[in-house]
Amino acid sequence: PQTIFLKDYAEPHHWVDTVHLTFKLAPRATRVMSKIVFKPNEANTGDLILNGEDLTLLSARINGAAIPHEQTDRHLIVKQADLPDGPFTFEAEVEISPETNTALEGLYMSSGMYCTQCEAEGFRKITYYPDRPDVMGVFTVRVESDLPVMLSNGNPQASGEGWAEWHDPWPKPAYLFALVSGDLLAHSGQFTTMSGKTVDLNIYVRKGDEDKCAFGLQALIDSMRWDEQVYGREYDLDIFNIVAVDDFNMGAMENKGLNIFNSSCVLASAETSTDATFERVEGIIAHEYFHNWTGNRITCRDWFQLCLKEGLTVYRDQMFSGDMRSHAVKRIEEVLQLRARQFREDNGPLAHNVRPESFVEINNFYTATVYEKGAEIIGMLRRLIGDEAYYKGCNLYFERHDGQAVTIEDWIKAFEDVTGRDLTHFQQWYSQAGTPRLSVTESWADGSLTLTFTQSTPPTPGQDDKRPQVLPIMIGLIAPDGSEVVPNTVLEMTESTQSFTFDNLAERPVTSILRDFSAPVILQRDIDAKTRAFLLAHDTDPFNVWEMGRMLAKDTLVAMITEGTPPTTDYLDALKTMLSDETKDPAFRALCLALPSQDDIAQTLFDAGTTPDPMAIYEQREELRHILASFLQDILPDLYDKNDAGAFKPDAEGSGKRALRMAVLSLLTLNDQGKAAQKLFETADNMTEQAGALMALLSAGIGQEELASFYAQWFHDRLVMDKWFMMQIAVAAPLEAAHIAQNLTHHSDFDMKNPNRFRAVFGALQGNHGGFHAPDGAAYKLLADWLIKLDPLNPQTTARMCGAFETWKRYDADRQSMIKDQLKRILGTPNLSGDTTEMVTRILG
Ligand code: DPP
Ligand code: ZN
């Protein structure tokens, strides 16, 4: 495999004008006829270089005549000397086999339907083409199929018995191409845009799923309206189609006018989907829709710029979800995710820049760093320049680059131009990996408070010396009586050490630092118990209130694990007060009740210089759950009853109540031998509560009967079955997890070719920290066995799942050596894919 470098970027030798494609669909012998009008790039002339993989070439012509060409297993090349002067038409016919395409990249089949996934480099498995995002063409597509529904990008142009033609007027790179054909039903609606155009909306699904589309359709309509109201962006075709596909490597894909979704990210119904699923569906529908402007109308020059569209689009979908639900709750959930996935990545061997400088397989860079840290950068930019300049800059970017394939520099330049600021230093967020550590000291004299911040970023692979980053640090100052004397203020830190002074203060205030988590850093603050309790009670920033509670919970667990110290009454009382405070949003209280994850505690211990012992972490966390259940026993039943949300509605209010109710139930089950949970399991009319009850029972070591009846009730529903697989592994005791997972791989409903099912089992296993790191190494071996089996079928999903091992250097010598052995065994597998080779090599370091 070859390493590709950002610094080597060169424009293509040829641009594309128009593309005509005809697909004669057949499971093992699909014919693809292409007719592409090329024009030479006068700025960089040379051979015609087309990508193509796994294609059988039947014919190739230029301007109607056969041509001399070279063919490798990756390219078709026509020498410059053999090309006509000026524009020319290239025509080819190839044969491909969608039915045997298990990699789910290019054109493939899923449950009897044809579908495509072309991002990043899948189009080259469909036909010969300059498969790079800076080459944009106008596509016209004819589909010939035995199946009734035939879809492609753009607007429908003509159709007849067994064929349909689509035309997309907007030039696009090949990665946004899509085609679907199947025996599908549409759930339809309409949207009238800000300029009064009517757009037809369809969600296409397999028969039997049509009653799970209403929520997704509403989310689409809400997204379309939001992008008009907030960013002034209107939709630009007559039709917008979404298709649900069961076998899909990612969550969803933003193909122009034809989004393709993993069915788990679009289908939703009260009976089969949890509130978390509803929230995810809403967020992903928005995400893919928002790509229409940030990604499609303006795309990436090359794949190193992936964060240009992903970071920005994640930021946009986060803002949307906050507007639809609660910004405070959403922000806490984002930070939990960021810490669990991105900080974890930044702290290990896979750390990389938000804009990487080299890769072997771009599919390996669809990461938390590119997506979530990429989104944090946009949020910081907005905080630094303010809302008005942010939207002005976005507008300038949209106007200036519409129809272009651009870079991070182009994005930043728009904000420099509207603000007159030099953002060179800020832009370093894209080119320096690692999570900054931020510490702070305070000094007080004569009515002046001085905050002195120090930042440093630990080395990451290939980057030993780090420079200070630009940090927007939002703070507030609170007087001893609880009144806020300095409201939200953004301090702009640019140096390694920097002080900020606040004068004319009557009394020494308490400082609330890094409000709303205004920068993606690890804040190291020595804070005494009194100050923490004060902030817990008086801070006006909900994020920091939660954060204080979080720190208390973490300190409690760390003390239990390392010193055997029982929880302090400070912590227990604070939690009780918080839970009983009915002025606080139930969703927020649920987040406060949730304990830090085992993985989070492991990283915390490691950062503090202690080798984490996964068994001790598991046991002490369980012990704390029991202590909480007993300490809170007076209030739990009442909290449980009061937060019955009644008839199911997947909105913020209902889901907040259910979240709190389920968190309470999990503890209550430790007190009542499962009575309340068993009752709820039987009577619940929605999956949130049914699954919540089952999880509460399983977490308490009971519930096997309910698990069996859950199967009997839901075995016909593949998405609920994913939950059934996942739940029992996720909460298994450490010494049983690998065994349960292994047994489930023999279950007749296990199908390794379906990424959702594979992830249900092995994602749950790696997510069960104690189980994954059980002392016998059984889980390491089991995962490695299955990664080796999956790799020849689906390299992309295999490579991504290797991330389970990325934290291996945290642990003791025994575990390190067991993991290393498994990684080496994977790496030693004959014909291992480039995807997996790159990941394992990087993890081994
Ligand atoms: N479909 C993936 C996403 O939307 C990749 N573009 O993030
Ligand atoms: Zn995206």
UniProtKB/TrEMBL annotation:
Boundaries of every Peptidase M1 alanyl aminopeptidase Ig-like fold domain copy: 434-525
GO MF annotation: an example: metallopeptidase activity
Domain spans labelled Peptidase M1 alanyl aminopeptidase C-terminal: 531-844
Highest rank taxon of the organism: Bacteria
EC number: 3.4.11.2
GO BP field: proteolysis
Annotated Pfam families: DUF3458 (PF11940), DUF3458_C (PF17432), Peptidase_M1 (PF01433), Peptidase_M1_N (PF17900)
Annotated keywords: Aminopeptidase, Hydrolase, Metal-binding, Metalloprotease, Protease, Zinc
Residues covered by the Aminopeptidase N-like N-terminal domain: 29-176
Peptidase M1 membrane alanine aminopeptidase domain segment(s): 217-429
Cofactor(s) listed in the protein's UniProt record: Zn(2+)
Protein family membership: Belongs to the peptidase M1 family.
Name of the protein in its database record: Aminopeptidase N
Organism of this sequence: Pacificibacter maritimus
Higher taxonomy: Bacteria, Pseudomonadati, Pseudomonadota, Alphaproteobacteria, Rhodobacterales
